[in-house]
Design a protein that fits this description.
Order of helices and strands of chain B: HEEEEHEEEEE
Oligomer: heterodimer
CATH superfamily of chain B: Lipid/polyisoprenoid-binding, YceI-like
Structural class of chain A: alpha/beta
CATH architecture of chain B: Beta Barrel
Number of domains of chain A: 2
CATH superfamily of the largest domain in chain A: Nucleic acid-binding proteins
Structural class of chain B: alpha+beta
Distance between the termini of chain A: 67 Å
Shape of chain A: elongated
Strand order of the largest sheet of chain A: 2-3-4-6-5
Radius of gyration of chain B: 20 Å
Largest sheet of chain B: 8 strands, antiparallel, barrel
Number of helices of chain B: 2
Strand order of the largest sheet of chain B: 1-2-3-5-6-7-8-9
Helix content of chain A: 25-40%
Strand content of chain B: over 45%
CATH architecture of the largest domain in chain A: Beta Barrel
Number of strands of chain A: 6
CATH topology of the largest domain in chain A: OB fold (Dihydrolipoamide Acetyltransferase, E2P)
Number of helices of chain A: 3
CATH class of the largest domain in chain A: Mainly Beta
Order of helices and strands of chain A: HEHHEEEEE
Helix content of chain B: 10-25%
CATH topology of chain B: Lipocalin
Largest sheet of chain A: 5 strands, mixed, barrel
Chain lengths: 138, 173
């Protein structure tokens, strides 16, 4: 084989391998894992007030961040994909902090206080603040 | 005499007014899939929805609540296409135009024609959804499917898709 043909083939192969590595990295990029992140610790009532009083400021502070929330369980249920969801109490009877677990938290009891660490996805006025992809902090 | 008559008529009218029944959930499910690429799909399980037996229906969700299989795709969706930091919520508000056909006290599957507005990426567009309201053993649920065209909501995603098919599934408490 002529030398220049060899060089082009080698470059082509290198390009294909690089492309393959990049594609592999994109396809296998891991999802965020809150258990490894440092979280902002806050009580359910304080988080509710922050969003109720100034949504823009609360978004800047909490949106997309890892939050470790402490609150009293109003109720809990399972969503349509089998994940456990807990609602934390605020002083507004119509408003809760709605938290979805990524991993099974085990036995829960309405009225008890627990700590939940997850990612805050934002505020739905007159309904709830949403935190998902969460785990139970013992 | 007139006073007594007035009071009598008023109290009869008052008792005839039926209080409306409200159904709600904080964990309805909304999913979407690109019409041209089955790999482009996401699910949101934290959708707040309210339904009244007078026919008013609403859905509110946080864009950052959509979960994709590929983390990279989820990032691009939030940062480049839906711009969720600028427009964190999507909302649908509508009315069931054939509410008289639906009996919330009788078990059954009822076709529901919902006319409303979808606000997504800061742009509001009228939508008509042909859905179903199901009543079973006192529990009410609603399902519906409709297409969303990216351009309608000024979403620049032509590199990925022009249109997605959205599906709603709400089980009310």
């Amino acid at each position: 084989m002529k030398k220049w043909v060899k060089i082009i083939l080698m470059l082509g192969l290198a390009g294909a391998i690089t492309g393959g590595i990049i594609a592999y990295k994109i396809l296998t990029k891991p999802h965020r894992d809150v258990t490894t992140e440092k979280a902002i610790a806050i009580k359910a009532q304080a988080l509710f007030e922050a969003f109720k009083n100034d949504e823009a400021a609360a978004n800047a502070q909490y949106l997309d961040k890892a939050i470790e929330i402490e609150g009293e369980i109003v109720d809990f249920s399972t969503n349509q994909d089998g994940q456990v969801v807990v609602n934390f109490k605020t002083d507004d009877p119509f408003f809760v902090i709605n938290c979805t677990f990524k991993t099974n938290p085990g036995e829960l009891k309405a009225g008890s206080t627990i700590r939940f660490k997850g990612i805050c996805t934002g505020y739905i006025p007159d309904a709830n603040v949403v935190i998902n992809e969460g785990v139970l902090i013992p | 005499m007139k006073k007594i008559l007035f009071l009598a008529l008023f109290s009869i009218a008052f008792t005839q007014t039926q209080a409306q029944k409200l159904y709600g959930t904080r964990n309805a499910k909304v999913s979407f899939i690109a019409t041209n690429d089955e790999d482009v799909k996401a699910v949101n399980n934290e959708v707040a929805s309210r339904l009244s037996d007078k026919g008013e229906i609403s859905f509110s969700l946080l864009i950052k609540g959509f979960k994709f299989e590929y983390a990279e795709m989820q990032e691009k969706f939030n940062n480049d296409y839906a711009e969720s930091n600028k427009f964190p919520r999507a909302e649908f508000k509508g009315t069931i135009s054939n509410i008289k056909d639906i009996n919330f006290t009788k078990d059954g599957s009822y076709k529901a024609v919902v006319k409303g507005n979808l606000t997504l990426h800061g742009v509001s567009k009228p939508v008509t959804v042909n859905g179903t309201i199901t009543v079973k053993a006192g529990k009410v649920s609603a399902t519906g499917k409709f297409p969303i065209v990216m351009k309608d909501h000024k979403i620049e995603a032509s590199a990925v898709t022009e249109k997605v098919n959205a599906e709603i599934n709400a089980v009310y408490q």
